[in-house]
Amino acid sequence: MYNFEFQNPVKIIFGKGEISKTGKNIPVGAKILLTYGGGSIFKNGVYDQVKASVEGFEVIEFGGIEPNPHYETLMKAVEIVKKENITFLLSVGGGSVLDGTKFIAAAARYAKGDPWRILSMRAPVLDAVPIGAVLTLPATGSEMNASSVITRAEYQEKLAFMSPLVMPFFSILDPEVIFSLPEKQVSNGIVDSFVHVIEQYLTFPVNSPIQDRFAEGILKTLTEEGPKVLANRLDYDSAANLMWSSTMALNGLIGSGVPQDWATHMIGHELTAFHGIDHARTLAIVLPGIMHIMREQKQAKIIQLGERVWGITDGSANERINRTIKMTAGFFESVGIPTRLSAYQVGAETIDRICDRFTKRGYKIGEKANIGPGEIRLILEDRL
User: Which CATH number is 11-176's, of 3.40.50.150, 3.40.50.1970, 3.30.200.210, 3.40.50.970?
Assistant: First the structure.
């Protein structure tokens, strides 16, 4: 196991009825910008619960943050933060709303030119407006981490940044919000969370049994509880287990002291940038290709995944790897997520564009930084 430092200051407030505690966790006298997405919070009762909780605060609202939050939209919120002297940001929505709110928090205090530099040039975040979150969709894990992914539509680019300064001061997780979610969003959340775990697990062994067992426990929980939620949206216990799995998948715990990959995400981001495919669905396309093309490098952990999560214990190494890839892709398909580019009418032209983009960037990805344009082409061609 590698050396590591781990600190997670986010206060989690978990359970039914806990949205009522929102206001109690915001600094007295704060001027709030409440951010949200397409308006589902008005239909499921979350908005009314939040508003009742923050009664007495001065609140300005900013809606319309996209599922893949756009820089262009977020910069409008940045102007409001500056003009109105906002002192606290309250994200009410899914991970995309929170990712967008994190960028707003950093960009509003960025004093060295275009805030896009935070993403495009990895400019350091030196200050940020404090954030709180009310989560309405389990998926990204953004409620308990320092990460944010933003799309700039005019450039067709989707990039990420990280800073401990944008970690929420608190996140409220009420599993009952899942009751009203459409099937597509639940399915996306299951797959997104699953692949978050895989990115920190499916690399190579470094004698880290605690992290491995935690990761495998999350994967097993997702495969068991996710389908239960799809079958019965009012199953509170399964909803709670799904929501907590999504948070635990990306709060830094299982990634401490182990190598991490993230190639699936970086390739998937390009599919979203060029075609607008839902983030989780890009992951379901790319991961089986990575498992196949990088099977030699990842052999030990793929076999371990197959044995401990899918119960595959016999056959040659190659046979076990093939079955593990098939079981993983089959799970994604079973929750309604296609695993082939053809399902989205994406072909060779897009593969060329993605490989060209990575060529121009001049760096390689993966846990050993050995996945370049040539490997990316093979990975995507495997998923046609």
Answer: 3.40.50.1970
